[in-house]
Amino acid sequence: RMRLGGISSEVDLDQLHCTRLTAQFAGLIRKYRGKFVLTRKCRDMLAQKNNGGIYLALFKAYTTQFNWSYRDRYPEAPIVQHSLSSICSPCHCGTAVPGVIFNPFL
User: Fold this and answer.
1) pTM for this entry
2) Angle at the Cα of 47 (from 55 to 59), degrees rounded to 5?
3) Which of 40, 41, 54, 82 has the fewest CB atoms within 10 Å around its CB?
């Protein structure tokens, strides 16, 4: 195994590890014969240049499936985590009114 700057595995680099977990939760990657490969869902979105769909899948997975306390080691607070996705969902679910800018922080 090669060790580069104190990093010898994915778990040593928190950002990479959490990104991989989130991509798996979003159904964008899966493990096949010991290696990670793109799922058909992800390949289709890439072929259609649907970067917004990929971002939305990652956002939904990170706010609804990924356990934030896994990263910061604070006690779980699901109300905080799930409120973010419900606050931001009108922007992404297609129900936003055209021409109206939705800002949940006002």
Assistant:
1) 0.70
2) 10
3) 40
Per-residue burial over 43-80, b = 16 or more CB atoms within 10 Å of its CB, e = otherwise? eebeeeeeeebbebbbbbbbbeebebeeeeeeeeeeee
CA gap 3, 19 in Å, rounded? 20
| Rg of the chain over all Cα atoms, to the nearest angstrom | 17
d(CA 68, CA 21): 12
Q: Which amino acid, one-letter code, is at 63?
A: T
Q: What whole-number distance in Å separates Cα of residue 52 and Cα of residue 25?
A: 17
- Retrieve residue 36's tokens: 């990670």
DSSP letter at 102 equals -
